[in-house]
Amino acid sequence: MTLWTSAEAAQATGGSATTAWECSGISIDTRTLQPGDLFVALKAARDGHDFVAQALEQGAAAALVSRVPEGVAEDAPLLLVEDVLRGLEALGRAGRARTEARVVAVTGSVGKTSTKEMLRAMLTAQGKTHASVASYNNHWGVPLTLARMPKDSDFAVIEIGMNHPGEISPLAQMARPHVALVTTVAAVHLEAFDDVSGIAREKAAIFDGLEPAGVAIVNADVDTAEVLMAQAVARSKNIEGRICSFGERSTDWQLEEITLQGNVTVARAVHADAPLLFKVQSAGRHFAMNALGALAAVEALGADLALAVADLGRWSPFKGRGTRETVVLDPVETERSLELIDEAYNANPTSLGAAFEVLAAAEVHHNVGRIGQGRRIAIVGDMKELGPQEAQMHADLAAHSAMADIDVVHCIGPLMQHLHAALPESKRGEWRATSAELVPEIRRLVDAGDVIMAKGSLSMALAKVVDAIRKLGHPAPQSKNEDA
Fold it and tell me: Domain named Mur ligase central: which ranges (predicted)?
């Protein structure tokens, strides 16, 4: 299916096409480019113009460029613009303008990607749904998502992130959502802000993009809820929109009870004076909160709430964001296994606290390993971008209420030395400067019957630790009755 013709893209960007072409997708990376894509030569670590010839050889329909790259013929299929990023932004705005899709935008210090994926799962069954890929939520990710949106989409889910002041408002105004949701506000990217209230004001800037009669959705349980609400009220007055909230303190979507049952979260809430029961296929209080906010967004978009609840019950998180798996350590005695909670994608004080709660509630198994006693083990890496209080924020994790039910904490990174020192000796595991240094010791540190949770900022490479634990495993033996 044609996404853009050369004439449409040229009109949208104010650029000029060297020849007629049609594209079926848009790519910024030759490693994932598909035949028929428009290759966008963005400048990041390297200049995308250096890869245009390769993109065309791989079957790209054309390339969005600011000059004819070296080694590329002048009659090659190109769209020439003054600035490639500005051109992508213009294409994104045009992509948003030409669709009648109902759009929801999601931001938050924690949980925005999981919430976006919940929304994708719930809306897909109710109409053609377009959503951000992975965590494409920044100054190029949002316009790329909008430019990729098919004209005939019924729903669109746009994730918007930030790490500095002033980033969210222009992206929200580009996305022009009918519904805007703030999942939560926490001490993330604090080094770029004076305090958490500053982060809240930046997150609330997502409401700047709301369409007339749009709906602002606010987490009522965060300490900065009043900051969020103030900006939501100001915007709603201008567009004749409305505001709703979710959480334990909310009267709109009130969360009453959360139960963690193995690898499932079951939640009970009240909305419009009616009970609401829903579940998520992953354990965690934070998943229940994100899901409640997502359900509020679904209703605000005009979708069917009952169908959404059913589809939500089948959703589970992506790799690195709370997935749980059993690692069988003995191919014959399959009860000799451990449970791995993969939270390696990222970390901040709020999300790490939530992960501790999940680990504390996990069920261990005794008398199946060499140690005998099953343990709850946390392997944690540095949390980045926390500002001048970062050392204290790491140390403070030792006093988290869930720590009482965690047996051992292994720490990785210079900042996690502060947690390591603050832990009681009975819980203090190993400390290593890098994940790579801990990997050779994994076999010694874990055992059958244990539940292990690994989490840290992405740059700490906790995925290496997760992979090392996975590699301890063996596939379960096949039954004699199974096909070979």
Answer: 106-298
Q: Is 110 annotated as a binding residue?
A: yes
Q: Is 114 annotated as a binding residue?
A: yes
Give the architecture-level CATH label for domain 99-312: 3-Layer(aba) Sandwich (3.40)
Q: Residue 480, annotated ligand binder?
A: no
13 carries a ligand binding annotation: no
Q: Which CATH class is domain 4-82?
A: alpha beta
Distance between CA atoms of residues 162 and 433, nearest Å = 28
Which pLDDT tens digit goes with each residue over 52-97?
999 999 999 999 999 999 889 989 999 999 999 999 999 999 999 9
The CATH class of 323-470 is alpha beta
Q: Which residues contact 45 (CB under 8 A, 6 or more apart)?
A: none
Report d(CA 343, CA 323) in Å as an integer.
Answer: 7
pLDDT at 480 over 50: no
Based on its alpha-carbon atoms, the radius of gyration of the chain, rounded to whole angstroms, reads 24
Q: Which tokens is 369 given?
A: 């390993």
CA–CA distance, 34 with 199 (Å, rounded to integer):
38
Domain positions in the chain are: 4-82, 99-312, 323-470
Is a pLDDT exceeding 70 seen at residue 482?
A: no
The answer on whether 112 is annotated among ligand-binding residues is yes
For residue 111, say whether it is annotated as part of any ligand binding site. Answer: yes
Residue 37 pLDDT > 70: yes
CA distances from 103 to 123, 160, 174, 301, 312 (A): 11, 13, 11, 8, 19
The annotation status of 459 as a binding-site residue, yes or no, is no
Surface-to-core class of residue 411, CB atoms within 10 Å of its CB (0-12 exposed, 13-18 middle, 19+ buried): buried
